[in-house]
Amino acid sequence: xxxxxxxxxxxxxxxxxxxxxxxxxxxxxxxxxxxxxxxxxxxxxxxxxxxxxxxxxxxxxxxxxxxxxxxxxxxxxxxxxxxxxxxxxxxxxxxxxxxxxxxxxxxxxxxxxxxxxxxxxxxxxxxxxxxxxxxxxxxxxxxxxxxxxxxxxxxxxxxxxxxxxxxxxxxxxxxxxxxxxxxxxxxxxxxxxxxxxxxxxxxxxxxxxxxxxxxxxxxxxxxxxxxxxxxxxxxxxxxxxxxxxxxxxxxxxxxxxxxxxxxxxxxxxxxxxxxxxxxxxxxxxxxxxxxxxxxxxxxxxxxxxxxxxxxxxxxxxxxxxxxxxxxxxxxxxxxxxxxxxxxxxxxxxxxxxxxxxxxxxxxxxxxxxxxxxxxxxxxxxxxxxxxxxxxxxxxxxxxxxxxxxxxxxxxxxxxxxxxxxxxxxxxxxxxxxxxxxxxxxxxxxxxxxxxxxxxxxxxxxxxxxxxxxxxxxxxxxxxxxxxxxxxxxxxxxxxxxxxxxxxxxxxxxxxxxxxxxxxxxxxxxxxxxxxxxxxxxxxxxxxxxxxxxxxxxxxxxxxxxxxxxxxxxxxxxxxxxxxxxxxxxxxxxxxxxxxxxxxxxxxxxxxxxxxxxxxxxxxxxxxxxxxxxxxxxxxxxxxxxxxxxxxxxxxxxxxxxxxxxxxxxxxxxxxxxxxxxxxxxxxxxxxxxxxxxxxxxxxxxxxxxxxxxxxxxxxxx
Length: 717
What we know:
Helix content is 15%, strand content 30%. With 717 residues, it is of the alpha+beta class.
């Protein structure tokens, strides 16, 4: 690792050559990193060579261009049918089956795309050498000579070769115990020599070795708990018992790679103190069931990268096996991959509600690092320095999903909500559940203390169905009732309520559009909830063609679906905020443009009027909060096209209403009001540290970004 670490000061050079049309407006110049590149490292774990390009960009490219170590681990060889030709092309039947050669061509394609992102030259040379992740088990380590912080590891495991057909010789088969060992399939000319076979434990240990090697601050995987298909396949129903299960909309290799990585992270973090790392899980094939989240510039850039990966220019890379994946070729924005290249979505979208004031007025922020909740606090109410992260919240019994939600009760105590995935080890059945924990007091060091985590279960009782439980959205009613809402297995919205955050009632389902059975899935992810001043509970959820809205007829009653809102399709999760007039406002990104839209019901209560902000690019949920006080100013915080946080408030300068961009971050910005009435935005940096920006005075612009003073005493990180 000496070469890439010594290369931390490397800076990206403007592209000078590459595949596709080059356009200076692609919005992919490097953003300001959270800190020096030596203070952060990125680890991407994928199943196939094209996964990171389709599902993790623009985040992948921003990581590569930050100058920090960026490692991508491709778990399978991606050998497929061994024919490097489009399935419907005339030359397909004439192309001989050569799986090692096709695996090598896909490796070359990913190298070309990564080189294009790093240097602008898709033919920029690489160095390849064997690396032992386990004694006697070699993988290929590739690093880019012109930018050696850009690295790839190919484990070379045999792929499933089918999207959903159960096949014993696959990562899924190994995970379920249908086989004891999964062989590798080295690509033509591989430096690793003869094939080997990994047991389930050995794959987990190999990934643990990768985590230790990279020492990442950001970990990115595919979706470990994807959505099921609307009907069971014949192949699944006729499979051997050990391979049976639900059929899913994602590729089985995607899911298995993410689950193996979950197990590796649990094993790695369970061994003791580690550098703080955040995790993001990216939705795969099901992005085809959601409106496009990226704007035209980001989509065009993805097209350029897919052209490099797909060998669209038929460049000569010097390898007779091929220089890219002709099954993708120049068609990255066509066919089944069209939605993948136009959409980037994470499985756990989070909300802005991860920062709140304590009883004494000091703000406290909470985030999931290394699978557990960490806490930061202001040293004094409304003033200056934050400190953290503190290990203020005990273990939830296993790693938590990547985001946490905070509810502040009327007495000033806090309650945290999260989701926990329990892996099928140590006698446990694989399932997901919602969990919560209440504040018990304040420690001698001024850090809040919490009791034991409590399980809220999940809307579904069948354990395999609980894996599709969505990210929880919470809302607090005037009488102290906490409402928790999530997407259930069927794609509906389920509600559970408890007075004071205790004494939870049963799960109840909200209604869905009348008439024929709604399309599957109705809701993918990205709901939000809010209680208005009259005590009525509002719920919003993006679906394929619009945004749905439910509201309680009266306080305490189950929300009912309102008439169609007329809102345009959302390319992001939806955020709800009080409109300052007793109602609500929905904030989201318009599909295909990433433009931020604010929608509120018109006077008739039927259609919603929409106000649009100037485009800033980016993707993901827009954080929003309405502060108390004169004018009830509205604050927005979003990710821009370079992965940086950008704010908008009443006093924002410039004709577009957005302030000067800040630093690159992960997750969703948090927003709160401090003891002095000023808005505060917090983000989790790509270095695992907390950064905060405060309005210079109530209603004014936001000031400079400051990092929390690092405090590791009593913390595992």
